[in-house]
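Researcher: I'd like a candidate sequence for this fold, 310 residues long. If you have to choose between options at a position, lean toward the conservative one.
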């Protein structure tokens, strides 16, 4: 019988405020379920994709999952073919790490079927090749936490260098997605190519404060670090109700609030589960009142990352 494996790759929060392209964490409650089955055709085939409203490409050379898998097969000089079935359990273009989850799930599943020629950390280089076709950039702030779980700090992509940061047990995320699709590549194009010294200093202070806060379990420092001067000022206008959602979160007791990824989702950080759930409740009510749909999830940090289901 053909070898088969089913894996789950979680949604991620990238940037985390001040860590543009450098920081990310994995969450529970959304992600990609991927089944990879060996075939005898010496090629990668996408059998089916569900949960994507027929929006994702079924061509293997266009999908982040199979592009990443092909990069790994090329490196190993293996000709064996595999069929792939993807079940998206998060909205596309949602700013929740959808393309990264597909790339990570694909290479992780393949690695297991090939008896683990690579470590999870080594697999990140192949997943990055997949993510590149979606975002037109090499940034591992979504790939790394999806693969490894926890909060990751990417200090360099070429060569790839990353570091696991402490994950306070009482660090809770509330995320909100509204049905607006904005692709990462588009959200990157609107950012300026250069920043002033003043902005660079403020951003450096924020990211240092965030990392320090994680090490000290100091949510005041984390709060200072959840601010962003590089992307938020330009991207927030693309997100409907951005300021109202921020006011609600901060008035309900959030430690910080920012754009979840590149856009259009947003997130709040809380230092208690009850506050995180209360923010979700108030945000949902806000959307009920304006008669608009939204997806709202509350999660602690997912420390396990991509995993085998069966
Ligand atoms: N850091 C990227 C961005 C998104 O904000 O454009 C995820 O890699």
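Model: Candidate sequence:
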């Amino acid at each position: 019988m053909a070898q088969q494996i089913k894996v789950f790759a979680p949604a991620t929060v990238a940037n985390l405020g001040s860590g543009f392209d450098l920081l990310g964490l994995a969450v529970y409650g959304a992600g990609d379920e991927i089944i990879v089955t060996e075939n005898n055709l010496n090629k990668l085939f996408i059998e089916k994709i569900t949960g994507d409203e027929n929006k994702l490409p079924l061509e293997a050379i266009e999908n982040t999952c199979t592009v990443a898998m092909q990069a790994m097969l090329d490196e190993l000089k293996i000709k064996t073919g595999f069929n792939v079935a993807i079940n998206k359990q998060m909205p596309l273009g949602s700013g929740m790490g959808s393309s990264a989850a597909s790339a990570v799930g694909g290479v992780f599943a393949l690695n297991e079927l090939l008896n683990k020629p690579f470590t999870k950390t080594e697999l990140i280089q192949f997943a990055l090749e997949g993510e590149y076709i979606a975002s037109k950039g090499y940034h591992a702030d979504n790939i790394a936490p999806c693969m490894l779980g926890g909060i990751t700090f990417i200090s360099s992509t070429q060569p790839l260098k990353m570091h696991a940061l402490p994950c306070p047990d009482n660090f809770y995320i509330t995320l909100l997605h509204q049905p607006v699709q904005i692709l990462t590549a588009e959200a990157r194009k609107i950012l300026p190519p250069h920043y002033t010294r003043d902005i660079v200093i403020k951003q450096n202070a924020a990211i240092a404060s965030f990392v320090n806060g994680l090490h000290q379990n100091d949510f005041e420092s984390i709060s200072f670090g959840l601010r962003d001067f590089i992307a938020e000022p330009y991207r927030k206008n693309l997100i409907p109700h951005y300021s109202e959602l921020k006011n609600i979160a901060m008035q309900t007791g959030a430690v910080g609030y920012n754009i979840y990824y590149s856009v259009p989702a947003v997130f709040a950080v809380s230092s208690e589960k009850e506050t995180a759930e209360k923010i979700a409740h108030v945000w949902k009510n806000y959307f009920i009142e304006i008669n608009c749909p939204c997806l709202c999830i509350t999660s602690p940090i997912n420390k396990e990352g991509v995993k085998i289901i069966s």
